[in-house]
Amino acid sequence: MIGAGSWGTTFATLTAPKVPTVLWARRPELADAINATKTNPEYLPGHSLPAGLTATSTLVEAVGGAGAVVMAVPSHGFRAVFTEAVPALGPDAMVVSLTKGIEQETLSRMTEIVLQTASMHDPDLVGVVTGPNLATEVLEGQPTAAVVAMTDHARARLLQDILIGPTFRVYTNSDIVGCEMGGALKNVMAIAAGMSVGLGFGDNTRASLITRALAELTRLGVEMGGRAETFAGLAGMGDLIATCVSDRSRNHKVGRMLAEGHPLDAIVREMQMVAEGIKTTRAVLDLAKRKDVEMPIATEVGRVLHEGKDPRDAVMGLMTRQAKAES
User: Fold this and answer.
1) CB of 8 closer than 8 Å to CB of 39
2) What's the half-sphere exposure (Cβ side, CA atoms, 13 Å) at 97?
3) Domain for residue 1, yes or no?
4) 315 to each of 190, 251, 253, how far by Cα in Å?
5) Kind and range of the H or E element at 255?
6) Residue 173 pairs with which residues in a beta bridge?
7) Which domain holds residue 307?
């Protein structure tokens, strides 16, 4: 398990009761604290971790001999960390991404980075796990569901069996592109949803926004090679709703604070964890331009984040667009 943030640690608590699990933390002091206290004092204070979970700050130690390498590092650091891990990667190891973002410089999805970096690795062993999975709710045992996307169905079923439990239901899917795009795109839309809350708008506004956001991310996701039905499932609609309505969502918080008048650099400094939507927005808009896909909500979010547009003006920009048929 590569990445000891809130979701990486939580994911490790799902696997550790069934298979030996090693959690990699970049900083030795965090790895030592996890081993000594069986908690993650920085990202999940007060939550006990299972006895079968151990932590290390040595990447080769974590990856060497692993049957599955699960990546939960931010998108901007994904390539560097995985490149370092490749020499220890076994030829039959599954590589699974939990990261919901797009690399800014290359516009690559995380599974594409895996295959670019480990070019000899079997692409059928590379996949993603995604869905409406806010880390603290999963750790608290609140019922939710997720989807494992991998083209090797037998391996997907194996991972499904490891992860599934009384409060964590897991489905399989072969649409890696759709699942990955849904996870990345919803973060942009969550910033918009947070702005609507920060501006004091109510449920009608948020419901309208989420509905149109789903249409946007489906349009781009299908153009990227995903299947339309994937975006109506856990990787699309499910994840979108959770991220757009939850106060625990980092991206939602960014949007709300922007609407309340906080400058972006101050918001970023205050947040302990990465809000992927901030970096992903620019990449999403570049992809939309490349594919000639209209994405008005993402466009307005980009103008607020990177051009200093007032969030209220962004909402008005959406509301006063030319009338058209619903699609």
Assistant:
1) no
2) 30
3) no
4) 14, 17, 17
5) helix 250-259
6) 149
7) 177-319
Pair 106, 205 in one domain: no
Q: Which of 122, 157, 174 is the last residue of a domain?
A: 174
Q: In this structure, are residues 244 and 209 in contact, taking their beta carbons and an 8 Å threshold?
A: yes
97 and 132 fall within a common domain = yes
160 and 31 assigned to the same domain: yes
Number of domains in the chain: 2
Nearest of 306, 300, 301, 304 to residue 321 by alpha carbon: 300
> In sequence order, what DSSP letters do the residues of 217-230 get, joined into one string?
HHHHHHHTT--GGG
Q: Which amino acid is at 55?
A: A
The token pair at 284 is 């999403």
Are 85 and 140 members of one domain? yes
Three-state secondary-structure class, residue 62: helix
| Tens of each residue's pLDDT in the chain, 327 residues | 999 999 999 999 999 999 999 999 999 999 999 999 999 999 999 999 998 899 999 999 999 999 999 999 999 999 999 999 999 999 999 999 999 999 999 999 999 999 999 999 999 999 999 999 999 999 999 999 999 999 999 999 999 999 999 999 999 999 999 999 999 999 999 999 999 999 999 999 999 999 999 999 999 999 999 999 999 999 999 999 999 999 889 999 999 999 999 999 999 888 766 778 888 999 999 999 999 999 999 999 999 999 999 999 998 888 888 888 887
User: What is the C-alpha to C-alpha distance for residues 268 and 127, in angstroms, rounded to an integer?
Assistant: 30
Query: In sequence order, which residues have a C-beta less than 8 Å from that of residue 119 and are 6 or more positions away?
Result: none
pTM of the entire predicted model: 0.93
Tell whether 144 is covered by a domain. Answer: yes
Q: Which amino acid is at 229?
A: E
For residue 162, being part of any structural domain is answered with yes
Residues annotated as catalytic are 186
